[in-house]
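Throughout our pipeline, every protein is held as a single compact record rather than as scattered files. The remainder of this section carries one protein's record, kept here as part of the documentation.

===
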Amino acid sequence: MGVVLSFIVVVAAFAGWWLSRQRLTAKPWLEVGVIGDAAEPTSPMTAKLGLGTFLVVASSLFALLISAYSMRMSMADWRALPMPTVLWFSTGLLILASIALHMAVVAARCDEPGPLRSSLLAAGICSLAFLSTQALAWRELVVSGYFAATNPASAFFYLVTAIHGAHVLGGLGALGRTSVSAFATPKDLAPKIPRELTLSVELCAIYWHFLLLVWLVLFSLLMRWTDDLIEICRGLLT
């Protein structure tokens, strides 16, 4: 339970910091300019709020999974799995993807199409490699005889990694469309990065930072680094 609360607090802090940067208190009708341009700033705000709503729902889902995992692992039939070494490599790949998308945001804001394309391509490759290494981890466990029905620990491992992988796969669709738009913009005709493309890059970066945060929490649970913390929280609650 303590791990769940910690996860929710971290996500809430991240959401609060992010929302504080989205001009939620802006009053477009009071801004000076052409009437037709007054509503334009609300489009990026609406898109980011839409993503924020989805992240809140996704956070609730992962919080429930973490809560169920923490409670189930205290039962007698729980047998911890030997974590595949490739998970370390996959974690590094997701970190690189998140860094690459941050660099893509910087490149988009600085109107640098070349670095933008390179960063988006690097993020896509690292994300695909992350999914591939997750599949390798599954294969390693299956070869070792740890199937989904072997014990509750096996079932939770496949469930948690599959749900997180599905979120990464869904994000790759949006990242793919953003990358296509970035590569389709002619260099000689677009000295400045279109505002819509910059917004898409920012949304992808926010989503990937969220995926990285969630995976680091899940990774610490799977590696049993939080066992002592869970026991302390249980003692406090009882």
Summary: The CA atoms of residues 48 and 203 lie 7 Å apart. The helical segments are 2-19, 35-38, 42-72, 86-109, 113-143, 152-184, 195-222, 227-237.
